[in-house]
Amino acid sequence: MSSLNQIRSTFLDYFAADGHEKVQSAPLVPQNDPTLLFVNAGMVPFKNVFTGQETRATKRATSSQKCVRAGGKHNDLDNVGYTARHHTFFEMLGNFSFGDYFKEHAIELAWNLVTKEFGIPADRLMATVYIDDDEAFDLWKKIAGLPESKIARIAGSDNFWSMGDTGPCGPCTEIFYDHGDHIWGGPPGTPEEDGDRWVEIWNLVFMQFDQQADGSRSLLPRPSIDTGAGLERVAAVLQGVHSNYETDLFRTLIAASEHETNTSAEGDRTPSHRVIADHLRSSSFLIADGVTPSNEGRGYVLRRIMRRAMRHAHLLGAADPLMHRLVPTLVQEMGEAYPELRRAQAFIEDTLKQEEIRFRTTLGRGMGLLEDASRDLGEGGVLSGQTAFTLYDTYGFPLDLTQDEARRRGFTVDTEGFDAAMNEQRSRSREHWTGSGQTASAGEWLALRDRLGPTVFTGYDSVEGSGEV
Ligand code: ATP
Ligand code: MG
Ligand code: MG
Ligand code: MG
User: Fold this and answer.
1) Which strand (E) or helix (H) includes residue 389?
2) CA 357 → CA 101, 252, 261, 353, distances in Å?
3) Ligand 1 atom 16: residue of nearest CA
4) Please, are residues 414 and 384 in contact by the beta-carbon 8 Å criterion?
């Protein structure tokens, strides 16, 4: 059985043997790219190479890129704990051609790796192409020998990839794996495609355009290739398990959280352990790359992820802060591939611990309030915006945390009411401040913010809307 660490090496070695330069993962915080919250795909560090603003010595590259999808255009925060295939943090394996090879060699390389090196049976696989991409359709027949029934033409955005509202983009072709008819779901292009039976493992993007802020697209200097395969999804296939959370790395992380909470990951406790394992990775990697919890921008996304995990620790009955105690296991599993994790270990542990101590002062009472407020709400009920606002303002519950807890209990949250309560609070505090005749110094302001917590936090608009900073 191949471990995640072995699969990563096999992938990179395979492309290195075909003239691709091995490139280290870039940090999660995009360098010089204010349009993007976090690196969300393997192509992001190469964005300027595709557009021609930057040149590289080599025309081919391969990498295993750290990605976080917890805000912005690609946001999987709400999928974690609910699907078998989504993480907030994952590794995207990729190969890139900067104006060198194009569709044919890209498909050849991918098919060969998947069926020969990895040995995945061809009859479990199918491909999608962009609706009018006859060239890709014919290549799948020619190279892979796929029958036409196993090549789906897809019209929507699923087969036209873009990293955000601007930047390089193009039509794509994707490889799907069939986990078997014991799992609900249908092949891509059918009404049941959102199920977890057919899982997308690899996306090959034919990079051809550069999208501008006004939505118009210009041609890239040269057609290029950008591919992305989720390491954790490939590992699930190769290890013969359905869920990413059953692969070797996640089993080890979940075993640690079972041990530390003295509970087993069974029945309705399973999602909690999975969320904890997932959020442990995203929080730790974000902290290692210099993000710290705060009330705005990237730091608030981190805080939201951390607090979600901490809520699940609470659900499991953890009596003491949990997350920092899981860091050694993560470092032991991933520290070799990502030395920054090992370097930052003490800082990661301390950051998680301080945040959990702080949140635990209000978490229990907040959960109590939620419990009381939901007592009379049945399936399909709506939690009042005022309650969600009190949870946010007094107990430090980010809105999405309350929504997630509501979803778990089968109801929703009145977000308009939440916004209204927030605006009312803002105008009240404006009235309060006008005419006081004083301006607070930065130090006083920070002290006040620390004391009041989220009450005076200013970053709401910048994070809750599009999620971009
Ligand atoms: P899905 O449709 O399953 O959400 P996607 O189409 O959003 O995936 P892409 O943007 O095409 O994904 O990214 C390329 C590859 O990265 C995917 O084929 C998948 O293997 C992997 N991937 C994407 N999102 C995640 C995630 N949240 N967790 C783990 N792997 C992911
Ligand atoms: Mg997705
Ligand atoms: Mg998809
Ligand atoms: Mg895709």
Assistant:
1) helix 385-395
2) 53, 25, 16, 6
3) 230
4) yes
257-273 residue pLDDT tens:
999 999 999 999 999 99
Beta bridge partners, 137, equal: none
Residue 432's pLDDT is 67
Q: Are the CB atoms for 26 and 42 separated by under 8 Å?
A: no
158's CB contacts (< 8 A; 6+ apart) are 128, 174, 188
pLDDT tens, residue by residue, 311-325: 999 999 998 999 999
Collect all residues with Cβ–Cβ distance below 8 Å to 372 and sequence separation of at least 6: none
Give the three-state DSSP class for 169.
strand
The pLDDT of residue 371: 94
Please tell me the distance between residue 390's alpha carbon and the centre of ligand 1 in angstroms: 35
Contacts of residue 430, defined as CB under 8 A and 6 or more positions apart, other chains included, come to none
* Distance in angstroms (rounded) separating the CA atoms of residues 380 and 207: 44
Q: Is the pLDDT confidence value at 434 over 80?
A: no
Ligand 1: nearest atom to the Cα of 199:
3
Average model confidence (pLDDT) across the chain? 91
CB burial of residue 71 (10 Å; 0-12, 13-18, 19+): buried
Q: Is the pLDDT of residue 454 over 50?
A: no
Give the closest ligand to the alpha carbon of residue 83. 1
Q: What gap in Å lies between CA 298 and CA 304, rounded to an integer? A: 10
Q: How far apart are CA 2 and CA 249, in angstroms?
A: 11
Among the listed residues 390, 372, 384, the one whose alpha carbon sits nearest the alpha carbon of residue 411 = 384
Query: Ligand 1 centroid vs 83 CA: distance in angstroms?
Result: 12
3-state secondary structure (DSSP) of residue 241: coil
